[in-house]
Amino acid sequence: MKQAGQESFRSITRSYYRGAAGALLVYDVSRRETFENLNAWLEDCRRHANEYVTITLVGNKADGASAQRQVSEEEGLRFARENGLLFVETSAMTSANVDGAFIETARVICNKIEEGYLDPTNETNGVKIGYMPGGRHHHHHDQSRENESRSGSVTIEEMEKERAAGTFGPVAKCC
C-alpha cells in the first residue's frame, strides 16, 4: 500500500522539479526502506530538474537512540558522495542542522549564479532576480572556470570547516 501511495505522490511532485534550482532528498535514518527508495527519487529529480540543480541528501531523525537507527551516517555520506550530493543529518524534533540544510543548499545555488551556471533572468532555472547586494548581475557560463568549481559531495559540517579555514573557495556574493 505504501508503494502505491508513494508512486502517486511521485507523479505529482515531478512537475515541481522542472522549476527547481535546489532539492532536498530526505530519508528517515530509523526506516531503511526510505533510504532504499532514494535512487528512484534521485532519478526523478535528475530527469525532471535542470542540469545544475543542487541536491542535498538529508538523513532525518538523527536524534533517536542508536538502537533505532537503521541507516548509518557513513551509508548516507557514501550515497551522497557516489551521487555528487551535499549531505547532512538533521533532527526535525530538536531542529539540529535543519536550517543548515536549507542555508547550504541556497548558498551553493547562489555560487552557481555567481559562476554563471544558473541564469537568474531565466525562471526555468528555478531562480528569480531579487535583491542582490551590490547590484550584482549574473555572469555567463565560462568553460575555463569549470574546473574551479567544487565537485563531488561534502557534508555541511565539512563546508563550514573549510569556510572557517578559508579553503572553501568563493562564498556566494548574492546570499
Describe the structure.
The N terminus and C terminus are likely disordered. The protein has six helices and three strands, in the order αβααβαβαα. Helix 1 packs parallel to helix 3. The chain is globular, with a radius of gyration of 17 Å. 40% of the residues lie in helices and 10% in strands. It has a three-stranded parallel β-sheet, sandwiched between helices. It has a single domain, classed as Rossmann fold (3-Layer(aba) Sandwich), CATH 3.40.50.
**Integer count of domains:** 1
**Unreliable segments of 5+ consecutive residues:** 1-5, 135-153, 168-175
Shape type: globular
Please state roughly what percent of the residues sit in beta strands, choosing from under 5%, 5-15%, 15-25%, 25-35%, 35-45% or over 45%.
Answer: 5-15%
**Main β-sheet: number of strands, strand sense, barrel status?**
3 strands, parallel
CATH superfamily: P-loop containing nucleotide triphosphate hydrolases
- For the largest beta sheet, what order do the strands appear in spatially? 1-2-3
Do you know the CATH topology? Rossmann fold
- CATH-derived architecture: 3-Layer(aba) Sandwich
Q: Give the overall pLDDT as a whole number.
A: 75
Secondary-structure element pattern, one letter each: HEHHEHEHH
Number of helices: 6
Structural class from helices and strands?
alpha/beta
Total DSSP E strands: 3
Distance between the termini: 43 Å
Which value, in Å, is the CA radius of gyration?
A: 17 Å
- Just give the CATH class: Alpha Beta
Helix content: 40-55%
